[in-house]
Structure formats: structure tokens, C-alpha cells
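Lecture 7 notes. Example A: sequence first, then its C-alpha cells.
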Amino acid sequence: MTHHPFRFVRPERAPVVAMLALAALLAGCSTAEPLAPPPALSIDASRVSVSGLSSGAYMAQQFHLAHSSKLIGAALLAGGPYGCAEGSLQTALDRCMAPAEGKGADVSTLAATTRARAEAGKLDALDGLRGDRVYVFHGTLDSTVGNATTEASASLYETLDAGVAVVRDVERPIAHLMPLAAEGDDCGKSESPYMARCGFDAAGTALRSIYASDIGAADAASGTLMSIDASAGLDAVPGDSKAFLYVPTKCAEGASCGLHIAFHGCQQSVSDIGDRFARDAGYNRWADAMDLVVLYPQTVSSMMPLNPKSCWDWWGYTGEDYDTRNGAQIKWVAALANQLGARFD
């Protein structure tokens, strides 16, 4: 999709605080410098979640369904329903963005596909969804992804009848972008970096919804945003070898913390806008308040396979199993999260 389309120290590893200091130092150096390996943290396996914007929303729902037994919820911002593209870019463009009325995805068909894949073990059993909380956002000025397309991502959970609590937030006059808490930007425009000060804190609203929390947050993040080697110890990296990781001070010092995986949208990868999504999308100050580590994996732009706008794979450019537990990007992100201390199979 485009926009216009961690007890805590492992014996063999340095203390996490030292690792964070090294990573922070390397983050300010040339990308040719070696990246720090992922630090081993004390991750609370009962507090793991995902979210995503645009193509990231598609990936967040794919990841949620693939690993629902390990997640407590998801936030889907301006994306569409699982399985919509059926492995075809043309179908993705015709049916899964802003199709003409009556030409969008059929949710009952997608639900049948989801059930069949879960029964076949390609996704987690649907019982893993029970009790999960899902937040779905769509702006009324979004002409890139239609409201009906995003509504289908919410309706899919309800059609599956698996005990998911869905919250819709679809009445705000915002275009196809990540809304930020501050005010001052024209939020009717969808343009790089696809984040805008709209007076609405989408990241905070999403996290509080997923974690059923009414906690407040500080005005600014006080933990460490670091660059890590997303390829360390992994056989395949169907994305960027550089990922971002936000670690609140308490989590770096050994406290047990949850994990949130945030998927950027198209044209928001490190090669497009550097660390702006990881730094500015709004998650980090809430991560401090809620004791959450935030992982920001990154995609890459390519012509072969065809992904010129560095989108997450929701139409099949990484292979036919792209939206299952065996999908290249889903396996990669799960393995990366496991290095931090998560427990994905």
C-alpha cells in the first residue's frame, strides 16, 4: 500500500544499560558503523501487543492473527482486513484501498479463509483471540484507504465471533496519516512523513485501549531510543537490518516490562524518514508510563520484489505464505522480538 498509495543480564552479554549506551552512541554514527545486537530484557509475556499504520495496519492484523495466543491486542490505523489481497497486487489495488461502493472485500469470505488457516495451523487457533482488545482508527478525510476498507478490518473480528473487544474511532477529520497530540498542522493532507499535529494522540489512545488503561503520560519520553541490528543471529531478514528500539529507564534497569511492536506505514521506513516514526509517532512517552518496550522494525524499498514505497507485505511480495505464521516478515519480527525476551513460537 502506498500513502497516496528482558532475571535481565545474560552471562555472555554485557549489562543492558551498557548495551543501551553503546547503541545510543552508534545511533549517532554513520549507518556504515556496526549496530548493537538486541539487548536481552525482562519481557512480560502477558503484555505483548502490536499496532500499525496503513500497510503497517495490515501487517499488525496479520501478526495478531498469526500469534494471537501470545498477544493481548492490536491497533489498526487506516488499514484493511486480513487476507484482502489474496496474494495479488492488482487485487490489493482494486479492492483493498479505496474501492468503488460494492467492490470491496467480502468479510464473510475473509472470515472463512481465516478460520480455515487457523484450523490448518497456519495461524494461531482462534481461541487465542478471546479477551483481546482491538482499536481501529480511520479518518474521515482519508482518500487513500476507504472507510469501508478499514471497517472490514474491525468487522472481521466480529464475524469470527472469537471474543475480541473492538473499539472504533472513525469520526475525526484526518487524512491518511499518523495523528499526533500537538496541534498546528493541516491534517487534511497526506504527505511525507505522513505524521501530523492534529490535536489527537493516536498512539496514546491505541495503547490505552489495548491495555485498558487510563494512565497519563509525561510530556516527553525519558528512556532510550536505540538502533539495533535486526539481522543478528537470524538466517533471513526480509526488511531492513536496522531496527529501532525504545527502552524506558525502568525496563533497562531490570524491571519486567511489556512489549509493543509498532509497524510504520509505507514511505515511513528508516530509508525514507530516518528515525522520525520511532521518535515522533507518539508511542514512547506512553511506553514510559505503561512500562512498555517498543520495537520498531523497518522495511526496505525494492523493485525486485516489487515494493518501491517500502511497505509491509500485505499482498505477497515476500512469498505466498506472507500472511501466515510462516510468512517471511512475520517470522522475522517474531524472531527479533524473541531476542528481546518475548516468547513467540
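Example B, a different protein, same format:
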Amino acid sequence: MNSITKGQMMKRLSANDIFGIWAGSILCWDENYRFDADAYAANIRLTIRHKPHGIYTTGSTGEFYALDFDEFKQMVDIQSHLCGQAGIPLQIGCCSDATHKTLRLLEYANTKAAVGAAQIVLPYWMELNDREVLQFFRDLYTACPDMPIVHYNIPRSKRFLHAGDYLKILEVCPSLVGVKYTFAGSHFSQLQDDIQAVPQLSFFVSEPLLASGMQLGARGCYSALIGVNPDYMMRYYAAAQAGDWIEAIKQQRRLATFYSRLGVLIGELGEGSSDPTVDKAMAVAAGFAQSHQRCRAPYTGWSDQSVATLRQWMSANYPELMYNQSSK
């Protein structure tokens, strides 16, 4: 489905093409914890209707670690078909704990014309030294030199990279075009320096730091919250993009408070706090997700009762985050 044929136009992305709000895709599991292709496609179609700047898959929210290769291929087929049909830019998460596994994912994504870039993490079980980091990126570029690469820069990979690292990586992997700069609040003093030192890369930050990050030169957000209320996230970005910093910072502070209070609620409910468990619970509670909140083991999705409690709490305290049912 949607494989590259002779003469077909490629839709690969440059750094200048990667901006705005990119929607993270949650995976869907049926009652037997098998990949639910129909529910997954329904979520993607609904996301596309709200016209995000792009869609990306299989990061932390997208449970990359839980898919086997055949399921990964099925997911990529669905994404590339729907995004290609709609003209929505697409990044496929090609993340794993070993180079040969990452390359297998990357090479399959590379067969799809609609895939604009691949988002990767450093193999994460044991910390890589500088030589190993460079070799990893060199291997990616050697295997698929025409596939743009976005680095999912996250401390869970044991190495959090900065401008000096990226300048060296660009020498062996010139296809690197962007950085998902997670936990930017913990590295905020370095964010501006990193953006200025490698302006050829597109830097993205998380929702609760979007306005401040854009003031320093970040270009957008890879967002799970767009799966709660996409219109809210698009308005938030539009305010920052227009330089309406009073409104943008107001929304940033509102989201920072939301996440802080959400953490307290999670503790009271005794539910899991991993990315997919929380993001799915919010998406279902808000009325956006066309699927159940279950996660594949070892992580446990929230109970129906806890999701109902979250829905009541969000409706009472953060009604602007609830999805407008009439827009379905």
C-alpha cells in the first residue's frame, strides 16, 4: 500500500518543512491486545480532519517498543496511505534498542512515498560513547541517505545531546533535519545556545514550554495533547506564531498548571504515569480518541472508572481541553 513506484514523487521533508503542531498517534489494542487496525485508522482520519501541521508515530506515546515488525508494517501502511491521500506531512518513528532493528524499521519506512522523515532514538539500554553515537548515525545515513532524520532527544536514552554533538553528527549524517528536544525545562539554559549553534536543524519542545521555546527559536511541538483537543493546540500555536506572547504565555502557564495538578490526581487514583497510559486516558476522557485506553503489557492502561473520574475533573477544571463533540 502506497509503496514507491517508478517516477513517483517523494515527499521528503527539509528542516524548513518541519514546524507547527505535529500530532502524536496513539496505538490501539483490541480486547485481546492485538493491534486494532480499524480503530487506529479511525483515530488518524479524525486527526487529519483537524489539519495539524503533521502527524508522527511510534514514539513514547505511540508505544514503539510494543509493536512487532509485522504490526509496524501494518501501522506504516495505514499511516502512509491516509496521510498521503490527505497531503498531511508524516514522520514515522523508527525507534529500537539496537542498530539492526532500527535499520529494519527505517528501510521499510523508506519504501513509502508519503513518509517525510524518520524519528529515531539512540539505542537506550546502555549508554553510548561518542564513537558509538557517531557510528549509529553513520549507519542510518548509509542505509537510507535520502530519508530525513529527526532525533528524539530524550534522557531515557542515557545521552542527552547538545549542539556540539549535533555538529559532529551532521558530518556523518547530513540527513539530520530536526530535534525533538524533550525535557527542555531541565535544559532550558542550553536550549537557546543549541538552537543558535545549529540553526539548520528544526527544534521542537513540549506543550508546557511551547511559547517560551518559540521565543528562543524553537519551531513547534510534537504533541500528545493534540489528541485531547486539536483545536486548542492549534490556537495555542497560532498565538505564539503571531507573536501574541501575552496570550501564548497565558496558555503555557495554564498547561503547566494542568500537568502539575494532573500529577497529583494520578497519585490519588493510583494509576500508571507512563506516557501512553496518561496520554490515552486523556484522549479518551476528553472524547477525542476513537478507541479504548488499554496499553500493551507490561504497561497497564487506566481503568474505566479512573478515566470517568479524569473526565469529570477535566470538565470541571479545564473545560477548554475537552473535545467538542459537535466537531466529530
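Note on Example B: The two ends are 27 Å apart (CA to CA). Residues 1-8 have pLDDT under 50 and may be disordered.
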